Amino acid sequence: MKHEWHQKVANYFEYVLNVVIIVIGVVIFGFLLRSIYHLLHLLLTVNDMRADFNEITESTLAVFLFFEFMSLIREYFIKDAHISMESFLYIGVTALIRAILVYHDQTMRTLLLALSIFLLVIALTFYRFFREKTKRLQKSK
User: Fold this and answer.
1) DSSP states of 79-123 as a string?
2) Quick one: which of 35, 73, 89, 110 could link to 25 by a disulfide (CB 3.0–4.6 Å)?
3) Which InterPro entries does the annotation name (predicted)?
């Protein structure tokens, strides 16, 4: 009896959170469609691929980022409001690769971005290793 209002508040916040996530998903889907349109427009209208290589690769990676964010939102609903750390690490790596392609003319920034990607890949490796180890320990109990 005493904690009924806690549950009502939690249910309300869960409802609000789900609505906000759906709205964010619709907005990201709109940006995804816009990025795909922009990429197709670039590919169909460009005369010299080499001259517009940076813009094409930046647009391609933007499409991949939007796909990853859409899959993140999908994962949120499939796994009952749980998003794995692995997904965030993948998004970080993709975003940093995009940044390297955009700022490739600045040596120090490129080196720092490459170092950041390396650290994220190491973190992803540790995450997978310890996740598998934890799963094995839980199965043995």
Assistant:
1) TTS---HHHHHHHHHHHHHHHHHHSTT-HHHHHHHHHHHHHHHHH
2) 73
3) P_starv_induced_PsiE, P_starv_induced_PsiE-like
Instruction: In whole angstroms, give the CA distance from residue 43 to residue 47.
Output: 9
CA-closest candidate to residue 123, choices 73, 87, 69: 87
Angle at 34 between CA 30 and CA 38, to 5 degrees: 170
What span, in angstroms and rounded, lies between the C-alpha atoms of 81 and 111? Answer: 36
pLDDT digits (tens, 9 = 90+) for 94-120: 889 888 887 778 889 899 999 999 999
Q: Are 71 and 87 in contact (CB under 8 A)?
A: yes
Instruction: Please count the structural domains in the chain.
Output: 1
pLDDT in tens, 2-34: 678 888 888 898 899 989 999 999 999 999 999
Residues spanned by the domain of 11: 4-140
C-alpha–C-alpha distance, residues 114 and 54, integer Å:
18
To the nearest 10 degrees (0 to 180), the angle between helices 85-102 and 53-78 is 170
